[in-house]
TrEMBL record:
InterPro entries: HAD_RAM2/GPAT1-8 (IPR056462), Plipid/glycerol_acylTrfase (IPR002123). The chain crosses the membrane at residues 318-336, 342-362. GO terms for biological process: cutin biosynthetic process. It comes from Vigna unguiculata (Cowpea). This is Glycerol-3-phosphate acyltransferase.
Amino acid sequence: MEFPMVLLRLAEWVLYQFLANSYYRAARKMKSYGFHFGYLSSKPPPQPSSFPSVVKYDFEGRESQTLVACDIHRVLLRSHSFFPYFMLVAFEGGSIFRAFLLLLSCPVLWILNHELRLKVMTFITFCGLRTNAMDSISRAVLPKFYLENLNLHAYEVLASAGSKVVFTSVPRVMVEGFLKEYLSVGAVVGTELHTVGCYFSGFLSGSGLLVKHRALKDYFGDTKPDIGIGSSTVHDHLFLSLCKGLELQSPSLFVTVDTSRTVMIALQQHKGKHLPDFSYMTMQEAYVVNNEESKSNSSSVMPREKYPKPLIFHDGRLAFLPTPSAALCMFMWFPFGIVLAIYRILLGILLPYGWALSLGVWSGLNLQIKGILPEKSEQKQGVLYVCTHRTLLDPVFLSTCLAKPLTAVTYSLSKVSELIAPIRTVRLTRDRTKDGETMQRLLREGDLVVCPEGTTCREPYLLRFSSLFAELADEIVPVAINTHVSMFYGTTASGLKCLDPIFFLMNPRPSCYIQVLGKLPRELTCAGGRSSCEVANFIQKQLAGALGFECTTLTRRDKYLMLAGNEGIVKQHKCPTNC
C-alpha cells in the first residue's frame, strides 16, 4: 500500500514542479512579449549590439584566417526557428504520425525556454529513428531547405575565411553534412544524441546541450579564432568576445578606428578621439547578423545562381518549409487531398479524353499545352515522342492533351502505378539489345513516348539523354514538359514509388506545362547521317532551351548514388541452391 502512495506523491511533486515553472515562464513571456505565436521561433528580445553588422565586413586578406560561426539558425540561416527542420526530419524520416505529434507539441513548446524546447523537439523527432534514416535525410532532404534560407551576407563572410568552424546547439547530425558538403566548413561542434544500436533514443548524450562559448574554449584551448560571426543575443556576445583581439597599450594613444573592425562600445563612442584612460583595450573582430534587417532587405536572400554548389538532386515529399502554420494547413488539407487524388485518378481511367481534361481542370489541375501538333506518320511505324521527365504522369498528361492513345516505356514502375495508369505502359530491362527490339515492336503498333533521362529531376536541369531512341526512329517529336507543385512532390528516390502519382495529385493546384516542339528534320536524325549521340545531345539542348533549363552529363546512377546510396536498380534475390 505504501509503494502506490509513494508513486502518487512523486507524480504529484513532478506535476507541481512542471506546472509551476511552466506557468511562471509563460507569465514572464506574456509580460515581456505579449501573445505572439512567432515566439516559438525562440527569438530573444532585441539587444543593442556592440558588434558591427556583417555588411561592414572587409573581405581582403582573409584566406589564412580562422572564422567561427555561432550557430546555424539566426546566423547562417535567415529563419529564427529550427522547428521546420525538426518537422522535416520527423515527416521524412519518421512518419506522418510523428510529424503530427510534433505539431501538437507547439503549445507546450511555446511555454518552454530555449533549452527545454530543443530537448522536447529532439525527443519527439528522434526517439526510435534509425541512424541511417537520418543520414539519408541530412544528405538528400535538408540541404535544399538550408540553401533556400541561407543568409547571403553571412555566407559571403564565412566563405572568405580559410578555416571555418561552426558551433551549434542543435543536433550535430542535422547540420554537419550540409555545412561540410556545401559550405566547406572544416569542423562542426554541436549537440550529440544518444543512440542504442542503430536507433536514436531521443535523449541527448551525457554532455547535454552544447554550451557554445564553453565549447569554443575547449576546442581552441589557449589560442583564439581570428573572426567570429553570431546573432545579437547576449549569449552570442559572450561567444564572440572570445575571438582574437588587438591590444592597445598606450592610454593616451590617438587613433582613428575602423568601425568595420571595432566591437567595443568605448571605441565606437571615441572614434577619432583620445582613448579613455585604460591600461589596455582589446578590439575583437566579430560581426553580428541582424535578421530583422534581413527580413525587410531582399539583398540577404541567396539567389540560385550564387549557391555554393548547384542543387540538382534532392529527395523528400514536402515541397514547402513546414513552419507551424504551414504544417497545420498541410495536415488539415491531407484528408481532402487523398479524396481529390482518387477523384482525379478515376477521371483519367473512366472518362474520355475531353471529359477527363475538362473535369481535371475544374478540380484544380493546371494543364497548359502549346506548340505544333505532329502530322500522322506516313511510314508504317508510329511517332516517337521524346519527353523531359518530371513525374511518372508525364506520358499520361501528354496523351490526354493530345487526345490520342500513347504507349509509354519505363525502367521502373510499381505494380500500383501500372494498375491505375490510363495508358499502356511497358517495362524495359536495361539490356540495350532487348530494349531496342521491344521499342521497335511498339513503334510498329503505334505512337510511343520515351523519357531518355531514365529518371525524374525536380530542379531546372536535364540529365544526360540515352541515345538508344535515336537509333530506332526517324520521326522524332521532342516534347518539353515541366511541372510545379506547392505541397507534395510526386517523385521519390528512397520512398514508396507506388505513392508518387497519388502525392502529385494530392496537391491543391498542380500544374503541368507541355510544349510540343515539332517533328525533328530528317537531316538531323540518324537517317540523315547523324550519330545517335549527336541526335540525343541536340534534342537535349533543344528541350533545355525551350524550358530555360541547363544541360548536364549526370545520369540516373549519379542521382540514386547521391540520394539513396544505391544505383537505382532493384536486384532480384534468388534462393541459393546450396545451403
